[in-house]
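Morning!

As promised:
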Amino acid sequence: MARHFSLSGFPEWLPEQRLVEQHVLETLQRTFEMHGFSGIETRAVEPVSQLLSKGETSKEIYLLSRLQADQATDDAELGLHFDLTVPLARYVVENAGRLMFPFKRYQIQKVWRGERPQDGRFREFVQADVDVVGQDTLSQHHDMELPLVMVDALSTLPIPRVIVRASNRKVAQGFYEAIGITDIEGALRAIDKLDKIGEKAVAELLVADGATGEQAALALALAGITGTDASIADRVLALGARSELLETGLDELVTLVEGANELMPGSIVADLKIARGLDYYTGTVYESTMVGHEDLGSVCSGGRYDSLATDGKKTYPGVGLSIGVSRVLARVLGQPLVEPSRKVPTAVLVAVLDEDKRRVSDRVAMALRERGIPTEVSPSAAKFGKQIRYADRRGIPYVWFPGEPDSVKDIRSGDQVDADPATWAPPSEDLSPSIRMLS
Amino acid sequence: MARHFSLSGFPEWLPEQRLVEQHVLETLQRTFEMHGFSGIETRAVEPVSQLLSKGETSKEIYLLSRLQADQATDDAELGLHFDLTVPLARYVVENAGRLMFPFKRYQIQKVWRGERPQDGRFREFVQADVDVVGQDTLSQHHDMELPLVMVDALSTLPIPRVIVRASNRKVAQGFYEAIGITDIEGALRAIDKLDKIGEKAVAELLVADGATGEQAALALALAGITGTDASIADRVLALGARSELLETGLDELVTLVEGANELMPGSIVADLKIARGLDYYTGTVYESTMVGHEDLGSVCSGGRYDSLATDGKKTYPGVGLSIGVSRVLARVLGQPLVEPSRKVPTAVLVAVLDEDKRRVSDRVAMALRERGIPTEVSPSAAKFGKQIRYADRRGIPYVWFPGEPDSVKDIRSGDQVDADPATWAPPSEDLSPSIRMLS
């Protein structure tokens, strides 16, 4: 039942599917604002030099050129942003004097990646990010605040349950250093593949990178630890490694998961196999999977970065997470797992008795809209049966018949009652389309 | 007071300005849905061949290329869309079997044009479009419906009054043909410059294009006619020209303005100097200016096109209008003419007495959010004076102090009362930031 998109990697939704997307985006926005986060949007383009400052993703960038660029112009080379973090860093430095820190912002926008489209990967997709950015310092308690904002948001969406997992770079790095693994980045990248390729293959990767069999076994033992309380630290320390960095990381991680589960039981699980490929995270890292849809990979990820940006004088540490909205939507719309209660916003169709009397129907519609009832007027003065069919095909629940007196029919039940456009209203659940999960 | 944007032609707003933009976009969305229009979004890119099918704007297109495209890929050449009409035409043809006609859609998205940025012209900007598209036929009454949707939307926005003007291509074309002007397109383009260059210069243009002095004078006389009732037809016919096309156009225009002003007095003015540069309009055309800001040019324009698209078997006639949201916003934010009542969504800041007691404040915040009150917790356990200053700088109206009992202070009045997070609520006008026009 998955849609075929006319341009591979560029999803587009039918109007009734867009109702689901709108509901998701509005729910995210409302939740983020409920937590005091300010919405911003950044332009879609950045200078290529800015985009390339993270080398790893360079091949995914779409460059822009003007079809008829003339010699006289001297534009910087521009590319479409591939995430919302690089633009945030630039925005924060550029507007530092006009922002207040810690700066809590959410941002819901499309991003573009020129990579080969495949299952769950798009070339154009919507991300929803929340981050808090400090000036020079940023308290550790935000490492718990940010994933809880996302837990609140995700649990309100009409999607399967999402489990948020956290780890801490300092734990892995401190541990690897203590047991003598030298290629820390390589080890993190290998561990990151655990769910995809399994323990045996990861051990082989680690050994190929220069680790001994014993070191590989210890790294895998560390990656196997999960939990929601201080016992995770005991189990890590039972593996024998010790370092200041490891202990700092364990402190941070235990504080995070204990605090989160005290406030919202079951909200966040510590899972030491989470490594995150990107090298700019410096502390806590997050990943999340949708229960029953683990094949999609992480649908909400992020972490702590000690220096999101710097302007030479000041640094801007941050912590945040990003939801892959399009990835989640493509799944729940594709199966489908959700559906809207109707295909259009309209609650009432006002019938037209005769083309000469269209103005009468227009006035009824105006009166209903003035009281917040989404209303359209029948496009033709066809036989009533045909006008009712127009409403029925779209799922519009009510058809209004001007007359003396006017009457309104619930076309689901067939009930018809006399009504006055100045006073009648549908039950509140019929005002707007609602979004429901299919069992 | 206009903002300088770090990349010329690419506007970005501060968080408090974005509150105004969000209010505008949400108001437009709500109004369009109140009239039964379905929201859609289309991908940002189209094949260049599609974009070039309207030759006139070719030089404004941004082309995409992948930074590290390999030979193996065989992608169609892509460009960023420069309006929302070309994508709509493609979307309608592509999804015709899954859409219901007449198809009423709104679409609020960014578009990109590679043109040289200047006053009120951007390279990236937001448009808000409403269109209704028929299959093979589309009733004339939609020519009145669509501008009234926009009148309803524009009058609800926190912006100066907008006057919507309408004309009809058939009137100008029929009139020009009847008086012997042969270069119809040239004459329309000349008349389109009337507000910018004045009558004398337009007459010279017309004569340079081959018109006689008398023909130029008649064309200018036609362009001088405005009104809101059937008298406009009388004044046109008094100029002596007659043709079937002219009379059809006058009928359509009089029906539109009489109907619109009967339903919503003062809503739409017929103004025969409106020509619209684009050659795909075939009947009614619309333009709108913001009172006191006529220098911005038209802020909401559109028209009727007998063939928005065709798939060989069927044609899709349409009528619609587009608001230049960024152009309007840049003006009202730049002056500024509007401001938000506070800079952040937060209604309540919960103070933290001591870093060890942060969890107590977290629980208060959760209880308030659960009842729909946007709340954040103070980022530091600094002295209360400093925490109150944090709220004050952002315009957060209330600061909550956990205690026995808890209390909440309105920092505008200084009033402080005992309060329970399970029952206290601010007045509804303090729940969210409101947007007000400055006098």
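Chain B touches chain A through 88 residues (CB under 8 Å).

Hope this helps with the figure draft.
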